[in-house]
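Are you able to produce any protein sequence you like plus the matching backbone structure tokens because I've never seen that pairing?
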Amino acid sequence: MTDRALAVVRAGALTTVQDRGRPGHAHLGVPRSGALDGPAAALANRLAGNPPDAAALETTLDGCSLRPRSTVTVAVTGAPCPVTVDGRPAAWGAPVRVRAGSVLDVGAAVRGVRAYVAVSGGIAVEPVLGSRSTDLLSGLGPAPLTDGAVLPLGPPREGRARVDVAPQPAPPEELVLRVTPGPRDDWFTPDAVRLLTSRAYHVSPASNRIGLRTTGPALERARRDELPSEGMVLGAVQVPPDGTPVVFLADHPTTGGYPVIAVVHPVDLPAAAQARPGTPVRFVAVRRRRLSGG
């Protein structure tokens, strides 16, 4: 039994293994998956001395507890939360040395939704289609963590992390999503198109890794006929029959049969990972030329 492993003491509400995902397989019906807050996951890996594509843990709201079998460096980023080692306060957003047999506890998020826990060497579960990410929609990758599970770790890189601490954006008090119109905005009335970018929506409690669901004014369709299934991209704003927009996130389906009224710029999507239910959502229409500049 290797000592390069993590024992899961407390799995939390939903903790999954995530890396950069498995893009490029949509033609096979395989979602992209990967960390919802990519910059936070990459920063956690950097603080822990890992390459940016190493697999880390993504927690949801109430964190998790872990016991390493060997001494490791750990970094917690994303949603601000209390971090302790054997009950003693430890740093959030900075490298923490955890000795073999000690218990690292990542507590409930004070703000935001998802924390990222990177461990030196990375989570070394078996990759599927080039990624170690858990995909909740297709079931690919490792299952969500359960109490008592053991996760293998890769060999740590030599040398220390090149950064001791780094600034991180705060979880949004208002989620602002820049959108370009289409490809099916012509399936909606002109009033509905204006409504999307002029009224406030709110994050629904039904949101998950597949999509950020919203509550707010319904968008009226101009066409009532059936739309054949067509390809869906990350950030697509699909409108189901109830008329409220859904923003597709990392585990979104590769095809869908409801019209897409707009598409969110990918740079704005990490903030969606940290938007709690009830957070105001504002869709802002911008020209495609402005979006290309980031």
About this structure: Confidence is low (pLDDT under 50) at residues 290-294. The first strand starts at residue 5 and ends at 10.
